[in-house]
Design goal:
Largest sheet: 3 strands, antiparallel
Strand content: under 5%
Structural class: mainly alpha
Distance between the termini: 63 Å
Helix content: 55-70%
Number of strands: 3
Length: 225
């Protein structure tokens, strides 16, 4: 029989409903579900290779987070952003994410900067190859690898929620205009990290976020910020 110490150190088995939630969340974040296009719950169970109960639980949670809306007839969809919603998301992202970057700057170690540089290299390759999903996944990875270093769990949770609402619309931009003009001010961010410049890092993230928001506005027919 294992002693208590060994039991505490054994890896935790991830529940099926948690796995299903993460997979559906990633489908939303990285553009596999198009805003406004309804999908059936039955179809999601097949796509996710999951049972009805964990899929329903994932949908319930993501609906509460504003990432999905119920359409009736056992269908759900990713909501389409309206102008006023973009205004709110712009304010929230431009307030919270530069703050997370500023906080993270004080905690970054060389290994963190090296990891972020590797992720940025993957982003550059994805942009060059026109690989939208790879760009979206690595762009998310870059931001949240940085934000994780801030040690600010409440702000981090809010940032995750904002990306769930905003990410699908950036996928629409990619679909219309390709990857050549996608937001990527990460070179400026990395230079600030290497120089220990917290203000510069926050400013680079603010510019990066604002560029993405401007592109979504233009794509959806609105005016620039």
């Amino acid at each position: 029989m294992k002693n208590l110490r060994e039991a505490d150190e054994s890896p935790r088995k991830v529940p099926s409903h948690e796995i299903t939630y993460c997979r559906l969340r990633d489908m939303i974040l990285f553009g596999q579900l198009t805003p406004g296009q309804p999908v059936t719950i039955q179809g999601l169970t097949a796509t996710l290779d999951a049972g009805m109960t964990p899929v329903r639980e994932a949908i319930r949670k993501l609906t509460a987070e504003g990432a999905l809306v119920l359409q009736g007839n056992r269908r759900v969809s990713v909501p389409q952003l309206m102008g006023s919603q973009i205004d709110e998301l712009a304010f929230a992202r431009l307030t919270i994410e530069p703050k997370l970057a500023h906080m993270a700057a004080k905690r970054l170690q060389q290994k963190d900067i090296s990891e972020l540089a590797r992720i940025d290299a993957d982003i550059d390759q994805a942009i060059g190859a026109g690989d939208v999903q790879r760009y979206l996944a690595n762009n998310y990875r870059f931001h949240f690898t940085l934000y994780d270093r801030a040690d600010a769990p409440i702000l981090l949770s809010i940032a995750h929620s904002l990306w769930l609402r905003f990410g699908p619309s950036l996928r629409v931009v990619c679909g219309r205009y390709g990857t050549s003009n996608l937001p990527d001010r990460h070179g400026e961010a990395l230079a600030a990290m290497r120089g220990g410049d917290a203000e510069g890092l926050a400013r680079a993230l603010e510019n990066d976020i604002a560029q993405g928001i401007d592109q979504v506005r233009l794509s959806l027919g609105g005016a620039e910020i």
